[in-house]
Amino acid sequence: MKQPPRMKITAPISTPAEVEPLVRAGARELYCGVVPPDWVRRFNTSGVNRRVFGNLNGYADLERVIDKAHTLDAEVFLVLNAQQYGEQHLDALTEIGARFRSIGGNAAIVADISLIASLAANVPELPIHVSSVATCRNVESARFFAQLGARRIILPRDVTVAEISAIATELPELDIEAFVLNDGCVFEEGTCHTVHLPMNKGGPICIDNYQFEYRAASGEAPAERALRRLEKNDQDYKRWLWYRFGNGFSVAPNGYPWGPCGLCAMPAMHAAGVHSVKIAGREGASERKVKSVELVHEVLRRIEDGEPEPKVRECAVGLRDAPSHCASGYMCYYPEKRSRPEIPVHAQPA
Amino acid sequence: MPPGRGAKTEESRRPIHDTDPDPDPHPDLSIPPKPPAGPIELGFALVDERELAAFARQERVTRDDYLERLGDARQCVTLPDDAEPTHFFLGSEFCEHLLPSIEAIDRAVALCERWGVTFGLVTPIACDSLFEPLRAALARLPAGAEVTVNDWGVARVVQREFPGLRPVAGRLLGKMLKDPRLPSATWARMYPNGLRAGPFREILDNLGIGRLELDFPPFGAADMYAGIDFPVGVRAPYGYIAKGRICKLGSLALDVPEKFSPGHRCRRECLGFSEVGARPGTRELETSQRGNTMYYRHAPGMTAAIAEAVAKGWVSRIVLSGA
User: Fold this and answer.
1) ipTM value of the model?
2) CB B86 within 8 A of CB B118
């Protein structure tokens, strides 16, 4: 009987030194960005991809990454994933894609439809992965991108496991990648038209210091009772935000990362034929990346060993040694799949 | 001096974030302004189908009827003297829970026939379960009706299954930086828009899309839509900054573990409440949040720039809508 392809772990890197520890920890796919010096000279911006920081230093580093990864039987993907590019950038980006392919790169991660079309036409040997920034989250949209030349769809964060399964089942010819750990946006990446400002200028808009007041549809302040409910909901939302941003940007006592997590959903995603699970956080510390891969790899190993789903989920909840956070439900990418350990109410985090 | 770059003295009096005081020379400025062939098109976009009742008694609609619906935000809109309603839209660009009911669509289509304006259905980014009700909604539309598409999959379905309808690319497909917090126009140029890119044009052509609907961004200049190969409509007087699938307000009635997750039920609380505010100590654009979406309201300089873009023929439609 034919074995299903192994689900892969896709991990971020920002230096060549990260390749070996991440692959040794269990990552089979690595993604990275690069800002070529001539790009900055030509366009006076470092906006080659979605992140200003967390990029490799140049093509020499990119070659080192590819060589090392291939030696270790891992693949390397290049992010060209800005939400949009100007028409003046397309040729230069297509050249970057061609150069990446010529040095052995495995695929480009792209969101802008013009760049997808340009790469498909001009560098047809370079597989295209549609970035989560493209907000492709239905079967028809996935077919649209496949027609443009995409080989893989990276689903955005806020989808359900049922939606992931439906797309993966309906389109077996496409690889499907889904988020599993770290770095949760509040808004959809493809429809958030902001930049992450430096923290002293406000940081990401979703945690910036906006002072909002509620208004009813009439334009007046809401009635007292409604306002109390809204304010209670706001408190819950603040708590959810704390989880969304890595439990206040902290790590578990045993070094594993907090933050949005889809470990409990991995058995279902594996069963649905999801090709790979994505760990976010190119800008993160190397240690955090390695611990993230270890965490996901431990769950994947148990799935591949045939452990029953409830047992895998139980293990997933126990890995960080602080199940109360899991019990909150707010740390989950896919809360409908979360394991529900019996935690005394008084032991739950405030 | 290229069009749209007014006297510096006038610019310097504008509030911060009004318009770009020193926009980059644009490659398409060699294209002369295109005087409008006639009056511009004027639309009104309604999200809450319950508000159709307010229109139901009217035998005809005027620009004042549309402007009145904006409340005090009408001061942020400048229309040409001869602009009168040509379109009426129903539906949400931002939320799968706000697809209008079949009954509301039928009522709106009938109103549009009475008023002699074109009906348009506005559609969001779709999850797979939305396609069935969406197909049912599209089947109610008369030939020639518009469909504002904000999802490439929805665009495919409209083209393939409803060839009598006219798809318009909604503002979720016209990507651009719209962060009202940006300290200067230089930041706004970090990721320029790709609306003039050849592949973008071809993709829209191949999907039968003949028009773009866009926002007017902070630091935008009057000429920013000059030279685009498609007729351009601008939403006014609000632009959207960001939209999510997670909805704080839509979680109001949910129990704690189910809140702030995708795919849950919704009681459409966003139609009853919104939030308005600003960052303390700033003079930025007025900002609001309704449901899963953040908006900025146009400042006077932006209103003037849009009026100039209309006068020069770079914008051929204004779609009035609330936040």
Assistant:
1) 0.94
2) yes
